Structure to design on (307 residues):
């Protein structure tokens, strides 16, 4: 059945895309060959309004439909200069992916001097997509991410955190401290004058999958948040997506983050989740995730072109 492409046109499209990603995620055996719905929500309600790396969702999203009006594929960036192909595995063809890549090149590139630049994230074992990109001049880049999955098949005992630390879900009064911890974690070299306060955090609480009981923090003896982990639980796929996970640079407490993640997994299982997922691109992050999620991993690599 022939597919037709059109730009995102209305709010209903967003909710159709959410349903589409759930269906694709399940069709792919709950392996992230496309985004899961939590990442889409996180992009719309946090990355776009708070990080300033991308225009609004409705301006940079394209959909492909079959003759019955059902979604078959979605193309979107996360930040400009990169593109993600969300494709129903039953509808995937080289012609469709060529069309999606061409559209991304027309709309998502960033300037690098006199050149344009675009990046795709591709699974290391996805030979067909690598072949399409290679033929168009893309080459494997340096950025690599490991997507890890943990099946929650057995009860998890409450972990014992380091002495003096409390692991619990976040409370409203924690937001200023939690926001500061997040900023220090992800902007360790920036001057403190660049911190803009905690208002951004309230947009996270608007995300449809947000649950305060799965928004975990590690609170130190001084009452300040030193580590954090937010779990986005999708009860349709029974999957918890861990994002963000972080620890303030000045908090060097052995076993703290592992205990925090284990408690998050325990709570996820207790509300019905049976799969936990997380992605890591740095050695410290992957060392931590290995200690909790184990060795199972899916390597995703950047493919980059400048022209």
């Amino acid at each position: 059945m022939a597919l037709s492409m059109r730009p995102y046109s209305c709010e209903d499209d967003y909710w159709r895309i959410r349903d589409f990603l759930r269906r694709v995620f399940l069709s792919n055996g709950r392996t992230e060959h496309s985004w899961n719905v939590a990442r889409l929500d996180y992009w719309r309600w946090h990355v776009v309004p708070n990080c300033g790396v991308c225009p609004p969702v409705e301006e940079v999203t394209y959909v492909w439909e079959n003759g019955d009006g059902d979604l078959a594929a979605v193309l979107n960036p996360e930040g400009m200069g990169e593109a993600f192909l969300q494709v129903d595995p039953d509808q995937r063809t080289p012609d469709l992916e060529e069309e999606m890549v061409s559209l991304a090149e027309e709309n998502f590139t960033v300037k690098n001097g006199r050149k344009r630049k675009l990046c795709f994230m591709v699974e290391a074992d996805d030979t067909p997509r690598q072949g399409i990109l290679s033929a168009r001049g893309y080459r494997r880049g340096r950025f690599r991410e490991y997507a890890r999955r943990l099946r929650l098949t057995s009860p998890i005992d409450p972990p014992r955190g380091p002495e003096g630390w409390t692991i619990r879900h976040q409370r409203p009064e924690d937001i200023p401290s939690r926001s500061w911890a997040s900023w220090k974690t992800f902007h360790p070299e920036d001057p403190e004058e660049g911190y803009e306060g905690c208002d951004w955090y309230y947009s996270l609480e608007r995300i449809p999958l947000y649950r305060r009981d799965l928004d975990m923090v590690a609170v130190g003896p001084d009452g300040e948040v030193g580590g954090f982990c937010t779990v986005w639980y999708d009860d349709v796929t029974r999957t918890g997506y861990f994002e963000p996970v972080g620890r303030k640079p000045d908090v060097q407490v052995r076993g703290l983050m592992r205990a925090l993640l284990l408690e998050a997994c325990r709570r996820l299982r207790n509300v019905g989740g049976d799969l936990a997922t997380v992605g890591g691109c740095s050695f410290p992050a992957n060392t931590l995730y290995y200690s909790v999620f184990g060795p199972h991993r899916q390597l995703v690599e950047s493919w980059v072109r400048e022209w």
Notes: The domain at 4-108 is CATH 3.40.630.30 (Aminopeptidase). The mean pLDDT is 96.
